[in-house]
Amino acid sequence: MSSQTEADRRRLRWQCRRGMLELDLLFSTFIDQLDAPLSAAEHADLLHLLGCQDQQLHDWLIGGNEPEEPRLRALVARILAAQSGATASSDA
Question: In the structure, what pLDDT confidence band is assigned to residue 90 with cuts at 50, 70 and 90?
Fold first, then answer.
């Protein structure tokens, strides 16, 4: 996915839609703040993360728990960092 187009980004945003508003906001902020296209590995990791149940995602992204898999742990940290960056820029 190295040549990510706007259509690719919209498709990815659609795939990030969840049953919990909090998760929707976290994922949409992450997608909106991507400076560069996701690599194929990052895209695969995101799709793997999106395959998890909402309650599990909530525990990882909001509840302070961490995934056991290092690649998912890194992605969760990146999603949370995007949220922190969005919050910091809106506070300025």
Answer: low
Q: Where are the domains of the chain?
A: 6-91
**CA 66, CA 17: separation in Å to the nearest integer?**
21
* Contact status, residue 84 vs residue 30, Cβ threshold 8 Å: no
Q: Is pTM, for the whole model, over 0.90? A: no
For residues 84 and 70, give the distance between their C-alpha atoms in angstroms, rounded to a whole number.
21
Fold of 6-91: DNA polymerase; domain 1 (1.10.150)
Q: How far apart are CA 85 and CA 76, in angstroms?
A: 14
